[in-house]
User: Which sequence fits this backbone?
């Protein structure tokens, strides 16, 4: 019993069976004939390497669904919803998308024609954290040490690279507009932010925790060279959605394939190594509720 | 009254709640319930204490193992393991419903991991921090109802930090209460079922037999002394039934005796009454009717005569010189004379005639359906017989007065007066003769 509890404390999740089951939103999907192909679009989570990193997911899904699944990387966070909105008849359209959490929340607020299926799992957790990191050698150890220092923000559409770190500053009693030196331009992605930090262009970078955890993103930068100074609240990982015109039967098969990805260890390991997310858990709306709250609070200012 | 009460008791069935079976079953249920309460209370407390101890021990051991796992990583600044543990608790509350707080502090009191990651790298300031950081052994304490605090030191060669957790046992308590309620409910249900079965058994084994006994008692009370109870068996009720049967038998026998005695006494009483009536209407010396009888029955004969229009003659006679007989021969002879005259009169009288002695030596014969002439003839015949019979060895004569209804009157008084007048006339005329009022008038 104690070993089991410890294992649970340390091991994290490995599938969808542990999350409270909610009524599947797939019931809203139509019952129509399956298309001859499936087009998936993802956010540029790992920059230029994203296409190669996520390609194994396309192959895995093709095998499971029995139809070609193409995976494309959107140009930006904003492009995701637009690609979905184009619809199945448009050559640039997509039927499946992997939204960053904030993009997903925004799309939901904009009544985008999407139905969520699953949430990604990275290194055993369906959540990650926004880190404020400094170079170890800089001697900057606490948030208080960072007052007036130059910061690298990813993008206003980034949850961990922008929205939640700013909410953290407010929670700690600081104004994000003035606490840092915000003169450095938005980096656009987390790896660029890390690179700017290591290059000495900034003193602090707001990045997702997934980039620092062993075995993955930190390959860009030696982990020992970075010091985590502050952490945000937990943020749910990316959300896989389908267009609301996708046949229900195919959506169910797709959902099952995603939730059972961790049962295919080879595919799961390759995806975890390159893309970060190597498994999925069932979608649960409450995971994303906090993002909406923070977003509303930020927008209210 | 007793019979009425018995009948009303027989009509009223035994009330369910007032029956012996129900009372005995209720007593047993109450005793069982008290026993259940006495045993369940401590039992529940013991079970709750055991469950809580096991629950706390499990969590404490898990936290100790986690502290053990964290110890090597902490000095190198690797906080990911601690973060992963906190993430798991935060991300999967359904797995750790009891863990309400979990934090890892370094030896300076800075937060390394927490359920709220925003506390990372902040300094804990709670009053117990200093004491917690000094802990060398795991400590568990109750900080509020259903809320346990765990402090587990993270140690290498020296203290590296501390793992603190708060365990909310309200769900466990609720679960215990639910299970206790379930057990209590089942015990109560079982008690009710057992009580019902017990009641039915008692009713079958006891209640019906008591009712049968009551029915037999009712029948006995109503007078049916042939009623008998089933006294098969060797228990108390069988004994009671046997005694009831014996009592019924005794009663039956006693009643028979009483009835015989009553019949015997009734016969004796009737005989005595008859005798009394006879004494009241009979002359003791002569055995003839007395004046009372004559007046009562002569009235009846007169009424019949008046109604039917038939004649009735009243003959009154008086022994001549009877005082002289008494004075000469004594009263014993006088009595014998009277008895002899009475026997003569009785011997000459018809069935319907009434012969009575109305005075010392004065006698009367009432003759229905007899006109004056026939009455005179009958009186004359009596006079002759008396003179011939020599009663008591003495030669006696008698004087006769005859009255007739309706010639001399229609009432008894008129007839008596008329006959008496004729009698005195016969006396005056020399005695030993028969006269009537018509002769007096002539």
Assistant:
């Amino acid at each position: 019993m104690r070993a089991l509890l410890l294992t649970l404390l340390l091991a994290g999740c490995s599938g969808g069976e542990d999350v409270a089951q909610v009524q599947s939103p797939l019931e809203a999907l139509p019952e129509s004939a399956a298309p001859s192909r499936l087009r998936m679009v993802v956010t540029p989570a790992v920059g230029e390497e994203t296409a190669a990193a996520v390609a194994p997911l396309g192959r895995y899904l093709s095998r499971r669904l029995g139809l070609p699944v193409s995976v494309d990387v959107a140009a930006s966070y904003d492009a995701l919803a637009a690609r979905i909105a184009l619809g199945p008849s448009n050559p640039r359209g997509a039927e499946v998308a992997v939204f960053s959490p904030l993009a997903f929340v925004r799309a939901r607020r904009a009544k985008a024609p999407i139905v969520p299926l699953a949430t990604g799992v990275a290194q055993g957790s369906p959540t990650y954290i926004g880190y404020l990191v400094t170079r170890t050698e800089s001697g900057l150890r606490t948030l208080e040490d960072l007052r007036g220092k130059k910061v690298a923000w990813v993008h206003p559409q980034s949850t961990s690279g922008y929205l939640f770190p700013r909410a953290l500053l407010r929670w700690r009693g600081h104004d994000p507009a003035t606490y840092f030196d915000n003169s450095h331009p938005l980096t656009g992605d987390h790896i660029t932010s890390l690179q700017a930090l290591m290059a000495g262009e900034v003193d602090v970078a707001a990045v997702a925790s997934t980039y620092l955890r062993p075995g993955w993103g930190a390959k860009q930068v030696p982990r020992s060279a970075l010091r985590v100074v502050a952490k945000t609240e937990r943020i749910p990982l990316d959300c896989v959605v389908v267009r609301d015109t996708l046949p229900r039967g195919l959506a169910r098969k797709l959902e099952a394939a995603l939730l059972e990805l961790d049962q295919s260890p080879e595919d799961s390991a390759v995806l975890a190594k390159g893309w970060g997310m190597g498994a999925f858990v069932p979608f649960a709306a409450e995971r994303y509720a906090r993002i909406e709250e923070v977003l509303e609070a930020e927008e209210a200012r | 009254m007793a019979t009425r009460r018995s009948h009303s008791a027989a009509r009223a069935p035994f009330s369910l709640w007032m029956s012996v079976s129900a009372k005995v079953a209720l007593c047993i249920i109450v005793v069982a319930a008290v026993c259940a309460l006495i045993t369940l209370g401590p039992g529940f407390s013991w079970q709750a204490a055991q469950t809580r101890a096991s629950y706390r021990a499990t969590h404490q051991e898990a936290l100790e193992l986690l502290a053990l796992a964290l110890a090597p990583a902490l000095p190198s600044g690797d906080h990911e393991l601690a973060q992963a543990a906190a993430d798991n608790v935060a991300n999967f509350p359904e797995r750790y419903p009891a863990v309400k707080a979990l934090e890892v502090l370094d030896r300076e009191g800075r937060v390394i991991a927490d359920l709220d990651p925003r506390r990372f790298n902040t300094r804990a300031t709670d009053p117990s921090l200093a004491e917690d950081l000094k802990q060398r052994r795991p400590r568990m304490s109750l900080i509020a109802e259903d809320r346990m605090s765990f402090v587990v030191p993270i140690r290498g060669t020296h203290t590296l930090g501390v793992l603190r957790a708060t365990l909310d046992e309200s769900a466990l308590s609720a679960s215990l209460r639910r299970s206790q309620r379930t057990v209590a409910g089942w015990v109560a249900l079982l008690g009710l079922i057992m009580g019902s079965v017990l009641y039915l058994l008692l009713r079958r084994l006891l209640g019906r037999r008591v009712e049968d006994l009551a029915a037999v008692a009712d029948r006995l009370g109503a007078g049916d002394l042939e009623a008998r109870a089933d006294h098969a068996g060797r228990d108390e009720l069988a004994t009671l039934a046997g005694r009831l049967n014996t009592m019924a038998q005794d009663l039956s026998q006693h009643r028979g005796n009483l009835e015989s005695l009553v019949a015997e006494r009734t016969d004796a009483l009737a005989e005595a009454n008859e005798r009394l009536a006879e004494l009241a209407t009979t002359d003791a010396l002569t055995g003839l009717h007395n004046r009372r009888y004559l007046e009562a029955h002569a009235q009846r004969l007169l009424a019949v005569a008046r109604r039917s229009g038939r004649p009735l003659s009243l003959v009154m006679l008086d022994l001549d010189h009877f005082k002289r007989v008494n004075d000469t021969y004594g009263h014993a002879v006088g009595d014998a004379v009277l008895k002899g005259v009475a026997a003569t009169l009785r011997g000459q009288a018809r069935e319907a005639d009434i012969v009575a002695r109305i005075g010392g030596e004065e006698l009367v014969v009432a003759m229905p359906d007899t006109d004056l002439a026939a009455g005179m003839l009958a009186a004359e015949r009596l006079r002759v017989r008396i003179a011939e019979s020599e009663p008591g060895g003495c030669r006696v004569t008698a004087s006769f007065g005859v009255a007739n209804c309706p010639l001399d009157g229609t009432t008894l008084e008129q007839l008596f007066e008329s006959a008496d007048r004729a009698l005195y006339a016969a006396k005056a005329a020399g005695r030993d003769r028969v006269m009537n009022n018509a002769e007096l008038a002539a």
About this structure: Residues 142 and 148 of chain B are 5 Å apart (CA to CA). The radius of gyration of chain B is 63 Å. Chain B touches chain A through 28 residues (CB under 8 Å). Residues 1-11 of chain B have pLDDT under 50 and may be disordered.
